[in-house]
What does this fold into?
Amino acid sequence: FSQYASEALCASLLPKVPDPDEARVLSPSEIQLSPRQYERYFRFHLEAEISHQEQENASYSLYGHEGVMKLLSDKQAEVTIEVPGLREYSPYVEDDDLVQLRQIRYDGATGLIPSVNTAFYSPYPPPFYPSGPWTEIIYNARVSAVLRPVEKLVLRVDGMTLQGTEVLLNHPPNQPLTSEHKLKLNIQFPVPRERYYPMEHVLPQIQASLSQALNATYREDPVEDEEGSSRGSSASEYWIQSMLFPTEADCDVQADMQLGLFARPSFDSALNIEQRVAVENICSQNYGVVPYLISGPPGTGKTKTLIETALQLINNVDNVSHILICAPSDPASDTLADRLRPLLKPHELLRLNRPTRGFTEVADALLPYCYVSNDMFSLPPFHQLMAYKIVVTSCRDASLLMYTRVTNSDLYTVQQNLHRTIHPTDRAPSSKARLHWNALLIDEAAQSTEPESLVPLYVVAPPSESHSLLFTPLVVMAGDEHQLTPRTSSPHTPLKRSLFARLFARPVYADHPLARRLNKSNPNLPPSPPPTLQAAMLPILRPAFTNLVSNYRSHPAILAVPSHLFYHDTLLPAAHPPSANRLASWSGWRGRRGWPVLYHNNPSPDELEADNGGWYNPGEAVLACTYARRLVDSGLVGAEEVCIMSPFKAQVRRLRKLARSGKYGDLWGVNIGPTEAFQGLEHGVVVLCVTRARRRFVRRDLELGWGVVGGGGEMESKMNVALTRARFGLVVVG
It folds into this structure.
């Protein structure tokens, strides 16, 4: 990356990278989330998260485990291993992660392993091995493919040979060698520290900007704490602070009612009024220098809104030439690129991938929009990279732009230093600064940790020393803070709270008169949208947010409960009636005719697995599979339209085993998994097994974060995900 930067941009013209804050923080009580302690705060919690993940990964170690080796060359082999729990991200493994293999000697004929002390097989004496069962070789393998549906990893192992693995010792003489060889292995999953490097490296950059804003001499009342306070006029040097700690001083005031007309024709004619208002507000840039937040509950079209925003900005807004669009994961980023693809040519849209990502993960239709060099994904040449109108990548892979020094700050500094070098007697250019990156759009922002979101934020951040910008970069985030939080190993870390959720809790959003949470909920009345602007409210801060309210996914009866519990009765059912009413005639419903919601009380007791201590409920599993079978047999729904979920992994394993058994026939098409695996997905019918739903368990499970019953924190988010996946049928067993 440094070579790329040196070749594309003269290294001597680049600004110095700030040094990290090396001060040790021994306790979280010593620090708080504030502009002054921002770097220390997140550095401490990142280190704590890594430590917790190391403990968690140690519990996933496999001993005496079988692997299948296939030689690729005389110096490299491929090993395939089965990893229990891989489907549920336990362990969490990605392409190119490190997996350590320690081979164990064993007799291929008997399958027996020599004793460490006696070096004897029982009952057969083998050759004597001075080191016992170990070959004394540790292989650092790299993951080349993650096959989650079948829970298998394909590993690339350099230096693994037939001689080194002692395969020939067990091979019968005078017989040809087979292409595959079975090995016995001890397997460990080290924490990939490089996954955290971008977050650790961006923190000093962010802290430098925050510190500069705090030290500004003309700041009337700088922000000092999490809550924020009124402050003086803002300039480009306060941009980072305004993005992370926005206050009323960063917002614009609306004094008049708008006419309600849209200045720009939509690329997507199916947009509703809330979606169009969001796009219009963002393109008008009339709300101040703060992040614009799109609150998109399930099925309300937040990604569609973000795509329209990108197209409008790049085509119809002056001085917007280049946009960075990110999402927390590769699949979500692929979805964004795929939706943009029909309207942009390969020289206009880049799907930027890290070099270690596998080609099989990317859809064929997207490959023309990726840059490939030496048979791997790569960064395009500098002049080509600068020409793309839109770059789509994951939040983490946005670090490629940071490391290659093509951030707004770096590019601006190079431009200024080059001008001074060529014209040493001239003053600095008098014209307004034109930055390369004009906007950052983040989808599914509530699933990204705050340090992850900082990486693309820093890429588009204006240089702090520039006081006059032709166009101030925009930041737009779309997400739902009431669904699953960012995935972490530690259950109670502050990293669970995304930047999106933290911003929405700040007074400038949460206390705005048009905030969703201020809707007066009444269970006896139909749902209603959030408050609307009235002339009597003026003057008012222009809202830097939009609440999406039209749900295009679920039947009104399915939508009613999550709308009341999580969204203050603001969700309006907008699903197409023929689709939403597909199961109205099913005989299994017990409530009002045509209401496709059923709650089945399950009296059977919960049980605990003997080996790995997971909770499951046999009676509940039987009921769930029975309902799935009845639904499929009705002919009203296909097996692939039904899913069964549970928050407990042991129950998921039992459900899969039971559903695939002969007792329930062909239910292989039914999707069965843990609740969190269904985030972002939808199914025609959802069968939810709550497991451990008895009153006496609720308090303890709430403390441990188990299950979906009890409310609060991640349990509430899981329940919301479970209830909002269904389109036309919901069965809850518990």
User: Anything to note?
Assistant: The mean pLDDT is 87. The two ends are 53 Å apart (CA to CA). The longest strand covers residues 134-147.
